[in-house]
Amino acid sequence: MGKTKDELYSAMSGAVVDMDEDLSVQLSREAVETGYDAFEAIDQGLTKGMERAGRLFDEGEYFVPELLMCADALNAGVEILKPNIKTERQEEKHKIVIGVIAGDTHDIGKNLVKLMLSTAGFDVIDLGRDVPPSAFVEHAVKENAKIIMISSLMTTTMDGMADVINLLNEKGIRNKFKVAIGGGPVSRKFADKIGADGYSSNANQAIKMVNELIGR
Amino acid sequence: MIVDVLSPKERLKKTLSGEAVDRPPVICPGGMMNAAIVDVMNKTGHTLPDAHHTSDKMSDLAYDVYENTGFENFGIPFCMTVEAEALGSTINFGSLECEPKIQKEVFPSVNDVTFLPAGTIENCNRAGAVIQAIYLLSEKHPEIPVIGSLTGPISTAASIVDPMTFLKQLRRERELSHQVIDYVTEQLMGYAKLMADNGATAISIADPTATGEILGPKIFEEYAVYYLNKIADAVHELRIPVIVHICGDVRMVKPQLQKLHSEILSVDAIVDLKKLKDELNNTPTMGNISTYLLEFGQPDTVFKQAKHLLSKNIDILAPACGLSTSTPLTNITAFTSAVKEG
After folding, report:
1. Which of A11, A76, B232, B303 would be a feasible disulfide site paired with B242, CB 3.0-4.6 Å?
2. B249/B337 Cα distance (integer angstroms)
3. Cα dist from A87 to A80, A91, A124, whole Å
4. Domain annotation for chain B: domains and CATH numbers
5. Best of A18, A64, A70, A201 to disrupt the B interface by mutation (most B CBs within 10 Å)?
6. Tell me, what's the ipTM?
7. Could you read off the pLDDT of B26-57 as tens digits, one per residue?
């Protein structure tokens, strides 16, 4: 007790970056009990910790297991704070539809991107793995998503990414969505070639890329 | 016209034991690096997914691949799902174009794993088909090496336990994670030994979940290096050499790669093989023609790239990663003929 607000938020950020779920919960409770704004505590405390974790990931200090544990610490704190967010602070979250294209076994990368975007405040709808091109389009329309994200780790399935864009063009709805792609064999050049709006080489960069796509 | 004085099997065996050879072998070990491409199957009529299941069809297709691609080995199985299926996960066998994949990992976390009796992998039907196919091929074609392909211990464990939970548990539940991976490793050892006993010339282990990029150097060493070595040691007891393939960028884990007990290290296209070889005390290396180039490039570009690798004294020429099933056969033959020409 006796922490200033800044000290508390900084400690919350530290709990996330240190992968300390229990401390994150404890400090989040403290924020609620002290009467701090729950939205602010997430935004200025927990989320800052996740941003630091993302930077450590970029720098090669943290790897996938560490990033996943930081996200757990963040989510545990968010669970405490969320019910206390005043309704007027609950802004509309941007919706993203994400999935691994048809015929792919790997989805660790996609799951990581999903996780990082969720922790950065996006509403991410996961279509899973082995998703046919038409399903990306159907779900994006149904969910009124702003962004479609497609991942692949195998060259075999990369043509399916272009199919998603072609389908959007055929239906005359290409301008309603931003399409971003990623995954092992995918490159910026390939993204340009098929007319994708965004490309990211890793999960942390994906946050920055998506923010740019929506002009945030 | 250069006449090959060594049989493909002799050449591979000598290469793997560090002896001088006339030229490097050009191979594709099967498993993750499966060369049963659509062009070959359409030509011969021996097709997947049927050939995943019986020894006859498996050995027929393996022979087709050998005969048509120019790769100097038989490489089986054609997927990475035999082990996980035996240990309980549900498999989607895919189609002619699309390789099998794990439909659902059977356990949500390492805490839930059921430890099946020793020998569970080798006693399952598909592993039996693989072992029988190895036997058939090695008896019928004694001059061609048969490579038995294994899914690595980390990837197999991440194919029976939900991978996202599993990756966290490598840190959070170390003792239990070790127990589960040790169990998987023991199962893999039994299967690998049976492959070796039935005529496999070499065992190739690919462990795509165990990359430096995913795990980081500490966890890579604690789990991947340790359990890969445990399997390699068991295979070595039978005097059979081991190939280990590590996916992705290996920059983070170079000191750890030096601790691997395998005869040769195979890596992805992103790695400069010559540089890696120099940095790792001239360790034998295998690779690493881009599978992207093989799929989308022109035969003459593939040919030049193969010549470039040859000029770097790479010990075994092979694709850098899993081949796309839609890779044109002409590109593969451009690759293999460039090597054979010397």
Report:
1. B232
2. 28
3. 16, 9, 21
4. 8-17+25-340 (3.20.20.210)
5. A64
6. 0.89
7. 999 999 999 999 999 999 999 999 999 999 99
